[in-house]
Design goal:
With about 270 residues, the chain is an alpha+beta fold. Helices cover about 35% and strands about 25% of the residues. The longest helix is centred in the middle third of the chain and has 18 residues.
Length: about 270
């Protein structure tokens, strides 16, 4: 076996903390990649300890396991999901997307001890370049829609690292369900929306996440400053919360000139090297 798996990161436009409550989400994959190279060997394993543990968890044979990644860890861009998907695809080859998602989710739960739904995995596996994905977690239905050219996003690092396995937030069922209900409404309103409307929905989403208890005062201040910046239509924290990246919708590329526009990506790519 000699394989290389390239897996993109993802951003979630709107629909946070909804996947494990049978809600809706609007993600797309972006052109930052984790690359796993697997090369068989006679005996034993070489590579990072975590990568080896994941590979052994899927009964992977002795191999050299090499990972390079453009996906920053602890930033809400699905670095853990990307790694677990790379392991699954590297072991089993191309497979039904949902099956790959569920296997990768199991690895996150059992090996990485990360509580997660299926948003990250599905956003990555069902990705299409220049498209965003509408996911309904109540039915697992997926629809890919053209990504509007006037939806221009940038990512701003809060410089607060987060570790999902160590997080605790307001898990009160009534409050969580209130967030899911309003977030689902925002997802539906966001589909194909004008940028100005989408920006307002992003701001509302952040306020709801703040009330849910997954933000921090430092992140809130940064988001509020961004929301008040000329040319910014909306901003919200992204991922599980407590830090990481902030998703910013701008009305033109010149806004926040120190940051590049986010570029959409394809689904994972598996290559046989020999």
């Amino acid at each position: 076996m000699h394989r290389r798996v390239s897996v993109p990161a993802r951003v979630n436009i709107i629909g946070e903390h909804t996947d494990y409550a049978e809600g809706l989400a609007l993600p797309f994959a972006i052109n930052r990649y984790l690359i796993l190279t697997i090369k068989s060997r006679e005996i034993g394993y070489s590579g990072d300890d975590t990568v080896i543990a994941l590979w052994q968890a899927v009964d992977g044979p002795p191999a050299d396991l090499t990972v390079s990644s453009e996906i920053a860890q602890g930033k809400g861009m699905s670095s853990s999901a990307a790694l677990c998907l790379a392991i699954v695809l590297g072991k089993y080859g191309n497979m039904e997307p949902l099956d790959a998602c569920k296997k990768a989710q199991s690895l996150e739960h059992e090996v990485l001890k990360t509580p997660c739904g299926l948003l990250d995995q599905m956003a990555i596996m069902y990705a299409k370049r220049q498209h965003y994905t509408v996911i309904d977690f109540s039915t697992m239905a997926v629809e890919c829609l053209d990504l509007p050219t006037n939806w221009m996003f940038k990512l701003v690092d809060s410089n607060i690292d987060r570790k999902l396995s160590e997080m605790n937030y307001n898990s009160d069922n009534d409050f969580l369900m209130q967030h899911v209900v309003t977030e689902n409404r925002r997802v539906k309103q966001a589909i194909g929306a004008k940028p100005e409307t989408l920006g307002k929905l992003l701001n509302q989403s952040h306020n709801s996440l703040k009330q849910l208890g997954v933000s921090t005062p430092e992140v809130d201040r940064l988001v509020e400053n961004l929301q008040q910046t000329d040319g910014v239509l909306g901003a919200r924290m992204m991922g599980g919360g407590f830090g990481g990246m902030i998703l910013v919708l701008v009305d033109n590329e010149a806004v926040l000139p120190n940051y590049s526009l986010v570029v959409s990506s394809r689904a994972p790519l598996l290559e046989e090297l020999g």
